[in-house]
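Feature request disguised as a bug report, sorry. It would help if multi-protein outputs had a clear separator. Right now it looks like this:
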Amino acid sequence: MATPQRKLHPLEGIVAIFALFFVLALTVGFAQAQDHRKVMLRSASALVLDAQTGEVVINKNSDAVVPIASITKLMTAMVILDRGLELEQRVVVSRADIDAIKGTRSRLRTGSSLTRDELLLLALMASENRAAAALGRTYPGGMEAFVAAMNKKAAQLGMSDSRFVEPTGLSPANVASARDLAKLVEAAHGYPLIREYSTRDKATVKAYGRRLKFHNTNGLVRSSRWEIGLSKTGYISEAGRGLVMRVRLASKDLIVVLLDSWGKKSRIGDANRIRKWLESSASIRHDS
């Protein structure tokens, strides 16, 4: 004799339906969570933007106004190029170009004669402070006119949180927000020479009768895993370690700004964490 089947109570049926819905939602939600999870970054401020659409991909304290160190040199380069100065003109490094703010050393001895083009290259690629100082000092009207041109350019770009007082970034009074620096990166990317020089791996110049070899301060330009269209690092104690780039990642052109990263390798670590997260997210979207 067949055992009679027990009929489900209406409430049991409702509970079963909700349980099934919960399991399905959990399964879908887990996959989506891989795409929307936060990236744990060691930089105090960070901003990643889609360069084409302006969409914010990652945002961490992007409105905080902080010292920007040698990221300043992107503005220095734009001001020089905007003025249309003769790049093959030779400039002599003088005692006025010695760092009196932080006391940093330089391999460019006073009395060395380099072209303005070489100074621009060393300032962007190797973050050479005396090179940047010499560019500002020999600007028409001198350093005062140069700094005024820097702040005027910042205003034109809508960098309302930014202020510049000198061309090297050694002064902590050179300040900006990550949001402003994204505007700076996008503007600087419009200059072919800045793109080329800021991403060059190494270069050799002749100064004071010696051949001096310099390398890019951003080791990522030497990695085949990265497609970098513009790069600049920065460091002073007040600013921590910073890095800005315009890169091609996960089939998108992105602006990456990382500021005040603790630890010598943290900014590079943050950049790699962002790349890994973006590529993982893109893979999940592609597979779904």
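(second protein starts here, but nothing in the output says so)
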Amino acid sequence: MSLVVDGLRWGHAQPGGGWRQLFEGFNLSCPSGQFVVVIGSNGSGKSTLLNLVAGTLAADGGSVQLEGRELLGMRDHRRARWIGRVMQNPLDGTAPGLTIAENLRLAECRRRSLFAWRGLAGLHPSRADRRRYAALLEELGLPLADRIDTPVGQLSGGQRQTISLVMASLGEPRLLLLDEHTAALDPRAEATVMALTDRLVARLGTTALMVTHSLEQALRHGDRLVMLQDGRLIGDWSAAERQQFTPAALRALYGSGTVGSESPELV
């Protein structure tokens, strides 16, 4: 297994007082290269799970291992070598005042820990770097190869999110975390970003966890679909098994108890 979440525990204080234990002994295993789509109602723990795996939140107990490496407690700079992440807001993943090439170089340095031995000079893309980045964008089918020296702040939200995706993929991370990364986009930009997502995951062969509220996305993308409810895994379907669902049928499972791999009554 590439990603193994074992016995994960995490809770939080509630605004009105009291304590909510969201995850208690949570388990999830994902084989190397599997693209897992995570759905569930608000408060089910989808984004919290990604934050715990990414180290943004500190777990109260359990284990999160990626290819045998324990991630819990790992320093951020070390974890960044193994994990790429794209957030919901296109503004969060890029530096607007830097060019496309400079943003890509920044991501490459972060992933490869070049700061330790090249210093700040290593952040400036060379001519060879810029040619390489332009070729990569062209290879991925993005119409930005001729805008490699354009500040990212001048791009549209969809274009900026495609750059965030490419940045997250540089250095071939072993895990890609996608936290509702198309939620802020219009339908056309969403389709572009999702098409790029599919290409990058297939190209890298990396394990991917994608949180989404879009049931249409959940039924079209990835090769495994899991559903969370109150920090529990209540549904787990392969790409073939999920074909039994329509978006409405899948929505009917929200808030239910544990469901099996098949729910023929919802076909």
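Even a blank line would do. Unrelated, but nice: The chain has a mean pLDDT of 90.
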